[in-house]
Amino acid sequence: MLLADERVDAACRSQNGWTALHWAACSGNRAVVMYGVEREQEEPGKPDTDTETSPKERLSMSGGEAKGHEETVALLLKAGVPADSRTEDGRTALHWAAASGNMNIIRLLRDHGAAVGCLDVNGKLPWQFAVENGAGADVVAVLFLRRELL
């Protein structure tokens, strides 16, 4: 419904450059742990003992749902979200699909022009990001060897 509304920008970005396509791609066959800073509100009436940050900041983790989001990825790509849009850390949706191990999303992104040779700011290709995140050998084969598995 939202994508059918002309006022909705399907390619809008968060502060860190994430699009809905990045989120859909990282929510693949297994959970991918995302790290971020969560801002904690001060308790009313309690003095702030932390002088460096206010409100307090702490590291938090959240994971993608352990189910595929192929339909969402397909809809976002059809709505014009670029397959190679990058986050601030230079990662594309293909990096995140590779990390999550979702072969269907990887194929969808590749079919829509996502570059398998796209480096993030740490110099990692999607297949290297997949290895780093424990994705299977099939993901590495499709991205590194560029070979389809039956």
UniProtKB/TrEMBL annotation:
<protein>
    <submittedName>
        <fullName>Ankyrin</fullName>
    </submittedName>
</protein>
<feature type="compositionally biased region" description="Basic and acidic residues">
    <location>
        <begin position="38"/>
        <end position="59"/>
    </location>
</feature>
<dbReference type="Pfam" id="PF00023">
    <property type="entry name" value="Ank"/>
</dbReference>
<feature type="region of interest" description="Disordered">
    <location>
        <begin position="38"/>
        <end position="67"/>
    </location>
</feature>
<dbReference type="InterPro" id="IPR002110">
    <property type="entry name" value="Ankyrin_rpt"/>
</dbReference>
<dbReference type="Pfam" id="PF12796">
    <property type="entry name" value="Ank_2"/>
</dbReference>
<dbReference type="InterPro" id="IPR036770">
    <property type="entry name" value="Ankyrin_rpt-contain_sf"/>
</dbReference>
<keyword id="KW-0677">Repeat</keyword>
<dbReference type="InterPro" id="IPR050889">
    <property type="entry name" value="Dendritic_Spine_Reg/Scaffold"/>
</dbReference>
<feature type="repeat" description="ANK">
    <location>
        <begin position="89"/>
        <end position="121"/>
    </location>
</feature>
<keyword id="KW-0040">ANK repeat</keyword>
